Amino acid sequence: MSTSLLYHAFGIRGYDYVKTEYTEGRVIFTIRQRPHTYRCSACGTRQVAPRGHQERTFHAVPIGGKPVAVVLPIPRVACPTCGVIRQVPLNFADSRRSYTRTFERYALELSRLMTIQDVAEHLQVSWDTIKDIQKRYLEERFRKPRLGKLKQIAIDEIAIGKGHRYLTVVLNLETGAVVFVGDGKGADALDPFWRRLKAARTKVEAVATDMSAAYIQAIRDHLGDAVHVFDHFHVIKLFNEKLSDFRRELHREATDKMHKDVLKGTRWLLLKNPENLDPRRKDRERLEEALRMNQPLATVYYLKEDLRQIWEQPDKETAARVLDDWIRRAEASCIKMLQKFASTVALHRRGILAYYDSPISTGPLEGTNNKIQTMKRQAYGFRDQDFFKLKILAIHEAKYALVG
Ligand SMILES: [Zn+2]
């Protein structure tokens, strides 16, 4: 084989070709380093004396379906400057790895189209080898996202698997990029993020979160000048949870069978947005019957519909009136659940209306969360939490995203 083929196909330059063997379906090239190119890997001097070899085998890119290995007796040299014996440096591979750099690049290319398992099988190396290649690449590219230009962010926690494991994710709302993944949930999970923001002197203008006290405090402490918007999906979701509890309670308390039957199975009808009611299944008729038979349920249901209107107004002033009117009606309803929710809304009034200063939400994080859940179903997320977090940081960049 010619030395130019060694270079162009396998990325190996400056070595002599010695021989080719074919064993057990593998192609094995042996190469040799020319003695006049020996140098010390620490100080670089060529004034070194040969001290034997250590033979190493590297995975190289395959030829067709055949795996290829490159065998090199790596020269050992005595360096008078350093006063030690060591290996000469390699230019086609990292001496700590068992594969060449072109092999590594090829594995990464394949990883954009195939799962780790597929790539490992195709290249006939272990799953861990491919995972390590991916991990180092992701580390280099995504470990420390640039935060300097961050302006609008959304923060939310996502549940990972069983046992209530959580990760806290920060999304750049302008680019859709995940810029931080913290362990656990609550304020502590964000500490490293605040430190990085501070170091980058970032001026975040607006942040969307749910209404939890932990976020309120953390954002007051660390993003005092930013507009803090309480995400409207979370407000509606919270109301829906209370509505579900309320319906369950009514169902439990209902004494006559007919009443019980009408309430039964209405949970999803109550939670659905009216425009999504299915005419084929007579959703609307069933819902209306349940509401007709149960005045408190009807009150709660219609106030849910009105709650959504807070975010549909032409300006902040009108929205404030709609919100205050909602609070008054909920308070006047004599339904405990509504009165409690009214005080929650009143307490968070400013952050709810802040939507009109900065119309952001954590909605885009939902999409990211869905992708994370898909990734999670593949086992690697649990074997190596660090790798999983890197994959999340890379998730938005389809161009760089690597398949499981
Ligand atoms: Zn040296």
Helix-residue proportion:
40-55%
Mean pLDDT: 90
Our measurement of the CA-to-CA distance between the termini, rounded to an integer number of angstroms, reads 37 Å
- Shape, per Cα inertia axes: elongated
Helix-strand string: HEEEEEHHHEEEHEHEHHHHHHHHHHH
Bound molecules: zinc ion
What does this structure look like?
This protein is of the alpha/beta class and 404 residues long. Helices cover 45% and strands 20% of the residues. The protein contains 17 helices and ten strands. The protein has helices spanning 3-10, 101-111, 116-123, 127-142, 191-199, 213-222, 232-253, 257-263, 267-271, 283-293, 295-309, 316-332, 336-347, 349-353, 363-376, 380-383, 385-393; strands spanning 15-23, 26-33, 49-63, 66-79, 84-87, 152-160, 165-172, 178-183, 206-209, 227-230. Strands 1, 2, 3, 4 and 5 form a five-stranded mixed β-sheet that branches. Strands 8-7-6-9-10 form a five-stranded mixed β-sheet, with helices on both faces. Strand 4 and strand 5 form a beta hairpin. The longest helix has 22 residues, at 232-253. It starts with a helix and ends in an 11-residue tail after the last helix. The mean pLDDT is 90. The structure holds zinc ion. The site of zinc ion (ZN) has 7 residues, from loops.
Q: In summary, what is this structure?
A:
The protein has 404 residues and is α/β, with parallel strands linked by helices. The chain is 45% helix and 20% strand.
Output the keywords.
single chain; 404 residues; alpha/beta; five-stranded mixed sheet; 45% helix; elongated; binds zinc ion
